[in-house]
Write a structure and sequence with these properties.
CATH architecture of the largest domain: Alpha-Beta Barrel
Distance between the termini: 34 Å
Largest sheet: 10 strands, mixed
Low-confidence stretches: 339-343
Bound molecules: S-adenosyl-L-homocysteine
Strand content: 15-25%
Helix content: 25-40%
CATH class of the largest domain: Alpha Beta
Length: 343
């Protein structure tokens, strides 16, 4: 079995179709067709008929079925998508001149972070690279013309480092010419801190990395992120520091979900500053988004702002991700198929 069409690289298409010009013609057709085609056509302009027929027979075409599309007032759109019997969510987030797509790498998740709604689903299955690329294609086909998709974040359902081969392939395809050609630094893969996967990712991919850190002591982290017991904060930081020296141009982010009374004290901000010494990471502070059945709460806005100010005063870039799409449960950590499971 070869990868499905949306996951084939230009080089792979070239060897299957017999020429680079044909490979480019297929990719142009694939990304130039909106809405996503429901079936592969009998012929693609610029591609020899026999070569296309052989390729078409070897790669089944399974675009996702849009089970539900929910838009919030700010334009953030959450998609509930079915790949066969597998349900996942993707989110399109518009800003004035460009859109970001938040992609799922698994249905459910292999990890059990206590503050994340996806945990309540358990683990369904790993998504294939073509299923990740199709999420981007679908969102790109629906993006407003004045705000085309320019950023992709692997921050939907799932732990990308537990499905790394497929994630790396998806990143490779999304950054290849002629299309969709996103810049490697415009793709961010977010991890809950699976150290061996991070090591391989940093070695093999030029894309940006986001580490979901959430705590400044191993005890607090292990309470929030159970596998924090396996890979301590010091080891995660040592890897980021090493990579900052090796790839100084790579974008690196540290995600920090602020939970009232758990990790939001001034002392936490001070420890965070020390941990990040020698790492050029930007910090994204995410006020905790509540979901039914969880007993954590977001800090008051004044505390969130004070935490940010403390980091900024020490020269650390820190942004607050005030929730977008909270009303439709599309904000960070709220992807748990509320719509699909309610049926
Ligand atoms: N498993 C990966 C990819 C998911 S990314 C990871 O953990 O990084 C989703 C981002 O949203 C992560 O930074 C995650 O920690 C954060 N998040 C999860 N649940 C949240 C919640 N309830 N409120 C705010 N942010 C949350």
């Amino acid at each position: 079995m070869i990868p499905r069409l949306p996951a084939l690289t230009i080089d792979e298409l070239t060897s299957r179709l017999g020429s680079a010009a044909r490979a480019r013609a297929v990719v142009r057709w694939l990304y130039g067709t909106a809405p996503l085609p429901q079936a592969l056509p009998a012929a693609v302009p610029g591609v020899a008929a026999a070569a296309w027929r052989t390729l078409r027979a070897a790669t089944p075409w399974n675009p996702p079925l849009v089970r539900e599309r929910q838009a919030s007032a700010d334009g953030t759109t959450k998609y509930a998508l079915a790949f066969g019997a597998t349900l996942v969510e993707a989110v399109r987030i518009p800003s004035p001149r460009r859109s970001t797509v938040c992609v799922s790498s698994q249905s459910g998740c292999t990890r059990r972070c206590v503050f994340c709604a996806t945990r309540t689903l358990g683990f369904g299955r790993h998504l294939r690279a073509d299923e990740m690329v199709l999420q981007v294609m679908l969102a790109a086909a629906e993006a407003p013309p004045e705000a085309p998709v320019r950023n992709v974040v692997f921050m939907g359902m799932g732990e990308p480092m537990d499905n790394l081969g497929e994630v790396l392939r998806a990143v490779r395809v999304l950054t290849q010419s002629p299309a969709p050609l996103l810049r490697a630094r415009s793709i961010t893969v977010s991890t809950s801190g699976v150290l061996p996967g991070m090591r391989r990712f940093l070695r093999e991919s030029p894309a940006s990395l986001a580490l979901s850190l959430h705590a400044t002591t191993d005890d607090v982290r292990a309470r929030l992120v159970p596998h924090g017991r396996i890979w301590p904060i010091a080891a995660l930081m040592a890897l980021l520091r090493e990579d900052a020296a090796r790839h100084p141009r790579r974008e690196c982010f540290v995600e920090y979900v602020l939970c009232a009374g758990v990790n939001d004290a001034d002392a936490d901000a001070d420890r965070l500053l020390r941990l990040l010494d020698g790492i050029g990471a930007r910090v994204n502070l995410i006020p905790y988004n509540a979901f039914p059945g969880s007993d954590l709460a977001p800090p008051p806005s004044a505390r969130v702002l004070a935490f940010q100010a403390r980091l900024a005063a020490a020269g650390r870039r820190a942004f607050i991700r005030w929730p977008r799409g909270r009303a439709i449960a599309a904000a960070c950590g709220q992807l748990a198929l509320a719509t699909a499971t309610a049926e």
